[in-house]
Design a protein that fits this description.
Rossmann fold, Isoleucyl-tRNA Synthetase, Domain 1, about 575 residues
Length: about 575
C-alpha cells in the first residue's frame, strides 16, 4: 500500500492549511479525500499555467500546422478535435487571435495575451477567452482551423506523387497535432476550473509553488518529523478501515498488508550495500545501477538524498525473498510501467535473485464509451466505489424488471432482490475487466457489461440460475443425483457438444494460468453457456423418456451449473440461485 509517498504529502499539506475540523471529526476519510483532491486541483492549475506561459506547446502546434499545410493538406480536424464543443473558441487561424496562425513562423510565440504566472488570480485569465455563458462551465477552449480543405497533387506522367510518399508522415504529424491540441485544451480546462472560482483562485494565489511545498512535507515525514509522523499514524487506521470495507465488498482478502513505509528503514542500508559491492555507483551526485541493455541507469537515490520507487521495490523484493522464499512474484501494474519493471528484474538478477520467477502482469487502460480514459461527466476519474454503486443500482433495476415480468408474478422479496443485485452488479464489473485481453485497452459500458446476452457475468449467472430452476421445478435433489451412479448418455449432437465442452474445463484452466490470462476462462464459460442454451432448447430434460435419458440430461445440467459456478468462483464472482 502506498502510504508514504507524494500523495500523503498532499494530504499533510491540505490538513495543515485547508482542514474542516468538524467534517474530519465526523467522516475522516471523506475529509482527507477532499483535501487530497483540493491540493491536486491547485497543483494541476499551477502546472498548467506554467506550461501555457512558456508558449512551447503553442509553438509546437503552430509548427505542425505549418508543416501540414506545406505538405499539401491542411489539418482536417473540424472545429473541436476529440472534445465536446463546449466553452470558448481559440482560433489558430487569423492573425492577432493570440495563438499560432497559418503564417506563423515555427518559433512564433503563441501564448494568448494576458497569460499570467502560476498562482495568479482570476483577474489574469487569458484575454482570448471570452466570459463563459451563465449556466454552463466551459470545458476548455475549442480549436478552429477554419474550413476543412484538402489539396490533391496532380502529378505529371512519370512523376512520383509526393502526397503518396508523405502520407504516413502526415498521418503521424496529424496524430501528434491532435494530441497536442487535446493537451492544450486540458490545460485551459484546468486553468478555467480554478480561475472561475474566486475561492479557488484565492487559494492558488495564497499557496504558490505547491508542488515544492508538498514535496517538503513528504521529505519531513521521511526524515522523522514528529508532527508529520503523528499525523500519518492518525490517518492510517481510518484509511485502512475504509479500504478493507471496499475489499470485503469485492470479496478480496489479504494475508499480509505491508505499506510502503514498512520498507523505508531498509532503504539507506540497501543503497550503501549496493555501493559497497560495486553494484551501484555515484553519477552526477545520484546513486545509480547501470544495467546492461538499458540506455538509462536505474536511480536508487537522488542528488538530494531522496529515495525512489525503484529503491522501495528492491527493498520489498529483498524482504520477500528473506521472509517467504517465493517461487514467483507477480506485479500486477498497468503497461505504462513496463520499463520500470524490466529494470527492476534486471537489477534483481544482478543482486543474485536468479531462482525466483519475476513477472510483470501488465494491463491496458479502461476507456469510456467515447474512446478516451474512463472519467465522469465532470472529467474526474471514476472512483471504484461509485462505479460499484452504479453497477449495483442498474443491476437492481434489471433484476426487479425480470422478476415483475414472470408469468406467475414476482418471486423475490426486496431483500432478495438487493442481495442478487449486489452479486450481479459487482460480478459484472469484475467480469468486464477480466474478460478482456489484459494487455489491451478496452471500452467500459454499464449497459454491455450488465446485458443478459453476450459474454457477460450476468449471462453466466443467468445460465446458472436457469439450470437450478430445473431442479427446483422437478423436485430433484442434486446430491442424490450425483451419487446415483447413473451414466451420462450423449445420444444427440447437442448433448455431445455440451459433454465435450465440459471436458475442456481443466485444459482451459491450465492455459489461462500459463500466461495469466483470465480472458481464456471467460471465453470458455461463454462458449459453455451457449452450448448449454442449444442443448436446453433441443433436448427436453424433465419430460425426457426413458428415465435413464432424463437422469443423464439432469446430470449434464448439474455438471454445467457446477462448472459455471467453479469458473466464476475462480474469477471472484458469486452465482445466484434465482435471477
Amino acid at each position: 500500500i502506498g502510504d508514504w509517498g507524494t500523495q500523503l504529502g498532499m494530504i499533510l499539506y491540505g490538513y495543515k492549511h485547508f482542514l474542516n475540523p468538524e467534517a474530519y471529526r465526523q467522516r475522516p476519510v471523506e475529509e482527507l479525500a477532499r483535501l487530497y483532491r483540493l491540493v491536486r486541483l491547485l497543483m494541476d492549475y499551477q502546472e498548467a499555467k506554467a506550461k501555457l506561459a512558456s508558449g512551447q506547446l503553442q509553438t509546437r502546434i503552430a509548427e505542425l500546422k505549418t508543416h501540414l499545410e506545406k505538405a499539401g493538406l491542411a489539418p482536417a480536424l473540424g472545429s473541436t478535435p476529440s472534445t465536446p464543443s463546449a466553452g470558448p473558441t481559440v482560433s489558430f487561424g487569423p492573425a492577432g487571435a493570440g495563438g499560432p496562425t497559418a503564417s506563423s513562423t515555427p518559433a512564433a510565440s503563441a501564448e494568448p495575451a494576458g497569460a499570467a504566472s502560476p498562482g495568479a488570480s482570476s483577474d489574469s485569465a487569458p484575454s482570448s477567452d471570452p466570459p463563459a455563458t451563465s449556466g454552463a462551465r466551459p470545458s476548455g477552449p475549442a480549436t478552429s482551423f477554419g474550413p476543412r480543405t484538402a489539396r490533391r497533387n496532380k502529378s505529371q506522367p512519370g512523376q512520383t506523387s509526393p502526397v503518396g510518399q508523405e502520407a504516413p508522415l502526415r498521418r503521424a504529424m496529424r496524430k501528434e497535432l491532435e494530441a497536442y491540441l487535446e493537451e492544450y485544451q486540458e490545460l485551459h480546462k484546468k486553468v478555467a476550473e480554478v480561475e472561475e472560482s474566486p475561492e479557488l483562485a484565492r487559494l492558488a494565489a495564497e499557496h504558490p509553488n505547491l508542488e515544492a511545498r508538498v514535496q517538503a512535507e513528504t521529505a519531513k515525514l521521511h526524515a522523522g518529523d514528529p508532527e508529520n509522523r503523528r499525523l500519518w499514524q492518525e490517518f492510517l487506521p481510518h484509511c485502512l478501515a475504509e479500504l478493507d470495507r471496499i475489499y470485503q465488498r469485492l470479496g478480496v482478502r489479504f494475508d499480509h498488508t505491508l505499506g510502503e513505509s514498512f520498507y523505508h528503514d531498509r532503504l539507506p542500508g540497501l543503497v550503501e550495500d549496493l555501493l559497497a559491492r560495486g553494484l551501484a555507483r555515484i553519477s552526477d551526485g545520484a546513486v545509480c545501477i547501470f544495467l546492461e541493455g538499458f540506455d538509462t541507469p536505474m536511480i536508487i537515490r537522488k542528488q538530494d538524498g531522496a529515495f525512489l520507487y525503484a529503491t522501495t521495490d528492491l527493498a520489498t523484493l529483498q524482504y520477500r525473498m528473506e521472509t517467504w522464499q517465493p517461487d514467483a512474484i507477480l506485479y500486477v501494474v498497468d503497461h505504462r510501467q513496463s520499463l520500470h519493471f524490466q529494470q527492476l528484474f534486471a537489477a534483481a538478477r544482478l543482486l543474485g535473485y536468479k531462482d525466483v520467477e519475476l513477472q510483470h502482469i501488465s494491463f491496458g487502460t479502461v476507456l469510456g464509451e467515447d474512446g478516451r480514459p474512463f472519467k465522469t461527466r465532470e472529467g474526474d476519474l471514476v472512483g471504484l466505489e461509485s462505479l460499484l454503486d452504479e453497477a449495483v443500482a442498474r443491476a437492481l433495476k434489471i433484476v426487479s424488471e425480470n422478476d415483475d415480468a414472470k408469468p406467475d408474478g414476482p418471486e423475490l422479496s426486496p431483500a432478495e432482490r438487493a442481495e442478487i443485485a449486489e452479486r450481479v452488479g459487482i460480478g459484472a464489473v469484475k467480469y468486464a475487466d477480466l474478460a478482456q485481453n489484459r494487455t489491451s485497452d478496452y471500452m467500459f459500458s454499464y449497459s454491455k457489461m450488465l446485458a443478459l446476452t453476450g459474454n457477460t457475468s450476468a449471462y453466466m449467472q443467468y445460465a446458472y440460475a436457469r439450470v437450478r430452476s430445473i431442479f427446483r421445478k422437478g423436485g430433484v435433489d442434486p446430491e442424490q443425483l450425483r451419487t446415483s451412479g447413473a451414466a451420462v448418455l450423449l445420444a444427440s449432437p447437442p448433448e455431445r457438444d455440451l459433454g465435450l465442452a465440459l471436458l475442456r474445463f481443466g485444459e482451459t484452466l491450465e492455459l489461462a494460468l500459463e500466461d495469466y490470462r483470465p480472458n481464456l476462462l471467460t471465453a470458455y464459460l461463454y462458449d459453455l453457456a451457449n452450448r448449454y442454451s442449444v442443448f436446453f432448447e433441443q433436448c427436453p430434460v424433465l419430460k425426457a423418456q426413458p428415465d435413464s435419458l432424463r437422469t443423464s440430461r439432469l446430470l449434464l445440467c448439474d455438471l454445467t451449473a457446477r462448472t459455471i459456478q467453479k469458473g466464476l468462483e475462480l474469477l471472484g464472482i458469486e452465482v445466484v440461485e434465482r435471477m
